[in-house]
C-alpha cells in the first residue's frame, strides 16, 4: 500500500505487537515488529502505543509484556502492560454466581504487578480486554487508580458502555475506551459512550474501527479534547484509520488534536521529543 501524504504529525494509541510464536499462533497472524513499524511509517505515524496480543487461557501476560517492552526499544513503540483477572465482566445472574467464587490464580494480575509496571520506565500505561481476559480484582483496580497511568479498555458488545461505567468509571484515572466503546460496528453503543463523556471528565475514546463518519464527527465536534487516534494495527492497516480522520468534515485544528495533541497530552511518551 502506498504511503499517505499529509502534513500532520500522527501518533497512535492502539496497536498490537505479537512478541512470540505462542501469541502469533493464538492470534492467527505473524506481523513482525519491523513490518508493523514499516506500516506505521507508510501511514505517517511517528509513534504508537503497543501492547501484547491475546495469550492462551491460563497463561500470564508477564513474559508477553516484557517482550513488548524489549521490542519497543529503539523502535517508535510505547509499551503498555496488558492485565487480566478472574472476574467475569458480564452483568447477568451466571456472571454474578461466577464472581462469588472468583479466586485469583497464579496467571492473573496482582497489585504488586501493577506497582512494578508503574515504576518500570519501560511501561507507560495499561491495557484491559475484559471480554477476553476477565476483570482484575478490586485491589488491582485500586492500585491502577494510585498509579494514575492511562488505561486503555477494549469495550463493545461483549463489554458495553454500561458495564464500563459499572466496573471502572468510579476509579479516578484516565481511561480510553477503544473503538468508541462500540466494537464491532455498533453505532448505538458508540453514541452511548459519547454520552458518558459528558459525565466523566477523565474518560476518552479512540477512533479504531469506528467506521461511521457521523459518529466520528460527533465525537470530535462535541468532545474535541477527548478523542484520540487509534488505528487498531495490525488488524487494520494504519493507512485506513488515518484516512478516516483526514476525510472528516472538521477543521484542521480539530484533526491535529485527534491525531497528535490529545494523545500526547494523555500519554506524554507520545509527545514530540519525548525520551522513550
From TrEMBL:
Domain of life from the UniProt record: Archaea
Entries under InterPro entries matching the protein: Amidohydro-rel (IPR006680), Metal_Hydrolase (IPR032466)
Domain Amidohydrolase-related: 120-267
Pfam assignment, any one: Amidohydro_2
Protein name per the record: Amidohydrolase family protein
Species assigned in the record: Halorubrum yunnanense
